[in-house]
Amino acid sequence: MSHVDDKVIELARSALSFAFSSEPFFRHAAELTQNASGKKMFLRLAKKDDERMDDLTRLFGKIIGNELWVRLVAEAATSIVPSVVVADMEAEVKRRGHGVVADDTQALRLAMELQRRFIHVFKDLAMQTSDKDIIKLADKMLEGEFYRYDNLQAQLDSVLNTGMWLDMPEFRMDGKF
User: Fold this and answer.
1) Which of 20, 41, 65, 152 has CA 20 to 30 A from 34's CA?
2) First-to-last C-alpha distance (Å) of the chain
3) Alpha carbon distance 38, 160 (integer Å)
4) pLDDT tens digits, residue range 82-130?
5) For the chain (length 177 residues), average pLDDT per consecutive 10?
6) Sign (positive or negative) of CA dihedral 161, 158, 118, 126
7) Could you give the domains of the chain?
8) Dihedrals phi, psi of 15, to nearest 5 degrees
């Protein structure tokens, strides 16, 4: 296997780690959040995102082959218990001095960090290939991750500036309302 192949497989493992960890991560963030609207938003983010997994399957299946992808999915599904991302989040909460309970802004910042990490996976992947179809799929996934990040940023801005949570996304990246 070439160096690029090893890097792409590592990126696939990272993407799967985030995909399998997001639900428990956002459920945990909902538990940390004191505000009812905040809990509702995190629980909405925790809902299983089949479209994201379908996109990951198309993307990595095309790059590394469906057989290896299926093997990596099975490996990730059994090895992410308890969630690596939740464990990272709890360690970060403790490090920042919120050992028992994090406030709303802390939960949002940690959720934004999760999104940043996922965004970097797709940016790194796009840099590993010159295949236009793969780059197009990675860009589509990046757009979705940036949308999630921007919504979390809008929530954080709202909480910091007004102390109010937004009940639903206030905008869409494609300009449709």
Assistant:
1) 20
2) 47
3) 13
4) 455 666 666 766 776 654 445 678 788 888 888 888 888 888 888 878 8
5) 66 83 82 84 81 86 89 83 60 62 74 86 82 83 87 86 66 56
6) negative
7) 3-162 (1.20.1260.10)
8) -60, -40
Calpha distance 105→17 (Å, rounded): 24
- The pLDDT score that the predictor gives to residue 173 is 58
Angstrom distance (rounded) from CA 155 to CA 26 = 14
Residue type (1 letter), 81: V
Answer for the pair 137, 55: CB distance below 8 angstroms, yes or no. yes
**Residue 128 near residue 8 (C-beta atoms within 8 A):** yes
Exposed/middle/buried for 86, CB within 10 Å: 0-12, 13-18, 19+?
buried
CB atoms within 10 A of CB 60: 25
Angle, helices 3-32/66-79, rounded to nearest 10 degrees: 40
